[in-house]
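FAQ

Q: What does a record look like?
A: Structure on top, sequence underneath. For example:
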């Protein structure tokens, strides 16, 4: 904003004088925003202003002296005018010396002096000079013109109005000066606040970077430690299973079963921790394979059927219209659905559990599928649903004591679904059960061949006898089992051993001489070598198709 504003009240009618007055007002307004603040750094700006004021006094006063001589202005007015000029020049010169000596007045004092002098000089001396010049042009003598001008100035009404106008301009100028000070203070506060915000933001960025680095280090540590812990646990599970197979004493078999179950539960917890650590450190990857979605669903049902039967729950699978062959990661898909199903069995005391799957419209060239696991359990309050998919979250600590678990299953499932390009959620209300769902786009494989669904009586079909079918057919029939074993071996999971032995009788001949080295690698817990042999077999299967 401006300290002073030029308007018609300042006009004298002498063009050159009005132009010079406007130049001085512009000069003052340009310096005002800085000089209104009493900072030492503004002395340099004040020095420049004073230099220009001395320059202004030279040409402005010379112009007025020339005009007064040309018009023969009464000596009495010339004396008053020269006194005003001298007072201005003396004050400016003294201020210049004070600034040079370091004993300078404040910037606001300098501005107040200039504004007040200019108002009094224009409304007093210069407008009186203009009136005299006009009177002389009209034919009056200089003395008559002076008396008329001075008479008007001495008129009580004119003097009162003039003084009132001067007071108003002085007050407005002082208020403008204060507003400039306030604006500068506000700007300074804003600048300091911006600096503070920038500094705090930088601190937060550094803290976030440190937290993310610590989180990555933690995830890496958990992944490494989980792997180190799981290696001896695999041996415990494997040796317990071997002892259980050879034990004849029922009491020993019972105790070995208990040891094996406890070890498997601990191994499941370690696997959850390892999966979560891999996800957080971006080290978990999907393995796309061609698979039959019906087989994935049937395995989920098979995995939870025993527990559901013990609790007297009705377990139903409803998936009549799925594509026969999809491409995706069947192991991770089964992990998500298995987590839904095992939770449903765990938290449902009576009633039924229904597993459903069906097509959805859309998918941008891929088939959008929706999988649901619906139970008749206690239900979940709306306020608790969001927490379900956070790591280590469980709705009530009593549930942890009653049912166990790490609280990682649903968090892992959510991240896996996102990696697949899908999403998961839950629809529920207290006392109305819950429906956990997964929506995911999967590529439909255009093939005339459909893998045979897993059947409970497959072992009775004589697949490993002398009249066995070609190895590619046998392997194709057990593709899902082989893929699961491959995944377990890749994860150093000892559960690959019993899973292999369940189907070994049907698969040995089909391995074309690789069964013995494969089983030797399993027995030595050399899962890397076993995984490599199995991958070779699966590659041959792909080439035969």
């Amino acid at each position: 904003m401006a300290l002073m504003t030029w308007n018609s009240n300042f006009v004298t009618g002498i063009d050159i004088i009005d132009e010079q007055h406007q130049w001085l007002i512009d000069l003052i307004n340009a310096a005002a925003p800085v000089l209104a603040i009493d900072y030492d750094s503004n002395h340099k700006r004040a020095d420049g202003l004073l230099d220009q004021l001395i320059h202004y006094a030279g040409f402005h006063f010379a112009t007025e002296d020339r005009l007064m001589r040309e018009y023969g202005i009464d000596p009495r007015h010339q004396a008053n005018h020269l006194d005003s000029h001298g007072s201005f020049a003396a004050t400016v010169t003294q201020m210049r010396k004070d600034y040079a000596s370091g004993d300078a007045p404040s910037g606001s004092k300098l501005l107040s002096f200039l504004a007040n002098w200019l108002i009094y000089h224009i409304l007093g001396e210069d407008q009186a000079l203009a009136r005299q010049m006009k009177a002389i042009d009209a034919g009056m003598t200089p003395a008559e013109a002076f008396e008329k001008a001075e008479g008007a100035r001495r008129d009580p009404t004119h003097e009162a109005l003039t003084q009132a106008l001067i007071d108003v301009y002085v007050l407005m100028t002082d208020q403008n000066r204060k507003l400039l000070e306030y604006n500068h203070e506000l700007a300074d506060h804003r600048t300091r606040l911006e600096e503070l915000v920038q500094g705090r933001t930088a601190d937060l960025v550094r803290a976030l970077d440190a937290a993310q680095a610590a989180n990555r280090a933690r995830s890496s540590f958990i992944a490494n430690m989980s792997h180190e812990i799981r290696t001896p646990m695999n041996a415990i599970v494997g040796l317990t299973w071997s002892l259980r197979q050879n034990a004849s004493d029922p009491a020993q078999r019972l105790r070995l079963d208990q040891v094996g179950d406890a070890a498997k539960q601990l191994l499941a917890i370690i696997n959850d921790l390892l999966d979560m650590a891999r996800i957080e450190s971006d080290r978990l990857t999907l393995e796309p394979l061609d698979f039959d979605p019906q087989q994935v669903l049937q395995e989920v049902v098979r995995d939870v059927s025993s527990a559901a039967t013990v609790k007297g729950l009705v377990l139903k699978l409803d998936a009549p219209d799925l594509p026969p062959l999809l491409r995706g990661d069947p192991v991770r898909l089964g992990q998500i659905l298995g987590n839904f199903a095992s939770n449903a069995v765990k938290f449902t005391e009576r009633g039924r559990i229904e597993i459903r799957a069906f097509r959805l419209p859309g998918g941008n060239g891929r088939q959008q599928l929706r999988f649901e696991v619906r139970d008749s359990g206690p239900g979940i309050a709306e306020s608790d649903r969001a927490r379900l998919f956070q790591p280590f979250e469980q709705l009530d600590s009593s549930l942890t004591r009653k049912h166990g678990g790490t609280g990682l299953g649903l968090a892992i499932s959510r991240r896996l679904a996102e990696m697949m390009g899908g999403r998961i959620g839950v629809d529920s209300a207290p006392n109305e059960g819950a429906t956990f769902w997964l929506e995911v786009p999967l590529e439909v494989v255009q093939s005339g061949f459909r893998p045979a669904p897993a059947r409970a009586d497959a072992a009775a079909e004589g697949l490993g006898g002398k009249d066995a079918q070609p190895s590619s057919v046998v392997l194709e029939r057990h593709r899902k089992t082989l893929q699961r074993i491959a995944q377990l071996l890749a994860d150093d999971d000892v559960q690959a051993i019993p899973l292999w032995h369940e189907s070994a009788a049907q698969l040995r001949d089909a391995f074309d001489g690789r069964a013995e080295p494969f089983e030797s690698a399993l027995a030595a817990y050399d899962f890397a070598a076993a995984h490599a042999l199995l991958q070779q077999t699966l590659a041959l299967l792909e080439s035969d198709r």
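Q: Is there anything notable about this one?
A: The first helix runs from residue 15 to 35.
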